[in-house]
Design goal:
The chain is an alpha+beta fold. It contains 18 helices and 12 strands. Strands 1, 2, 3, 4, 5, 6, 7, 8, 9, 10, 11 and 12 form a 12-stranded mixed sheet that branches. Strand 8 and strand 9 form a beta hairpin. Helix 2 packs across helix 14, helix 12 packs parallel to helix 17 and helix 14 packs across helix 16. The radius of gyration is 31 Å and the shape is elongated. The chain starts with a helix and ends with a helix.
Length: 438
Amino acid sequence: MFSYYLELALRSLRRSPGLTALMVLAIGFGVAASMTTWSVFRAVSGDPIPWKSSQLFVPQIDNWGPNGRSDDGEPPNAMSYADAMALMRDHRAKRQSAMYQVSPSVVPAEAGKHPLNVSGHAVYGEFFPMLDVPFKYGSGWSESDDTNRATVVVISAKLNQKLFGGASSVGKTVNIEGKDYRVVGVLDDWNPQPRFYDVVNTGGFSTTGDDVFLPFLTAIQTSMPNDGNTNCNAVPEESGFVGLQHSECVWIAYMAELDGAAAATSYRNYLNDYSREQQQAGRFRWAPNSRLRDLPAWLDNQHVVPSDTKVSLLVALGLLLVCLVNTVGLLLAKFLRRSGEIGVRRALGAQRAAIYAQFLTEAGIVGLAGGVLGLLLTGAGVASVGWVLPRDIAALARVDVSLLLLTLLVAVVATMLAGLYPTFRASRVQPAWQLKSN
């Protein structure tokens, strides 16, 4: 029976090619606009580590007081060196790491090659298992390496390809800022988006991955400067990198892994107790105002998803709705123009369900054709989003199998929904009146 309805639908569409083309164009443009913006929104709003995000927390400590808070009372979104070191020493989380952004020079071993300016982070060894960082060769460093300020390094697969041709470089040395570091691990392909472990410096997104990860205390000892954001509520009393460490400036990102709600509550109490201790010691002159958010809440608090992507998605969905309304009108005109045919079929015993099946099949074919057009336009749209969105954001949009299937599904389902009212009107045609009028 479906093949019969399919044949009727194709005949009907061929009888009015202009009307059919208009409907296909409307569906194609509407679906393409919505799927293009969806591809961007999906990329920037996804959970970068869904299997563990509920166990990862970002603490905040108010070391600036009321005069340094934002309008909503939020403390700084990064930490001072003093607070970060205190939290690392107390080690109240299962795993934790302070981190700051660095951009050292790497000197290739081959003579004549120019130094490479690379980006990276100074972190603690627990950073790697805490974030389930994938390794191609080797692993991260140990706690004793942190304590002993070992000159070890984890490098990216990209840097490993440049320096060692892609072979395992574990145990080899890399000259960083004139000092030899022993390679203990080579990352596999890893550049999570959003860049959840350092939203403070990246704003959430970066097309370039980190090339090196160095031990935090080793980087501090060698005076490797911070290359990320530094915010101060007062001018540091001392100059240079040491002065920054002694100041109340915030420049260190921090993340802790906590198992369960009880651990989070205990850690939150610890943060308040720490702030209270600082108040009693005279460093803070205000009541504790600390925060502890899990990763999804932290990304939401930092407005990682750009507001313009949300607006674009809403506008595109509105455009799709307008296209569907136009399609409803075109289908209504097309179906009611065939009232005589419907009357004859009803007079010969066709049930209303058969009328529904016939015309919804026709609407489905229009939706499928619009979906195919939408696929082509979505591909062009995704390739062009860089014209209207920042490069880091636009680079995240991808055309993959799931997006292709979703485009076809949305086109077919939306068009069939749009065909419900015209089909309802067509099924209500009175056979006797139609036969009499004809």
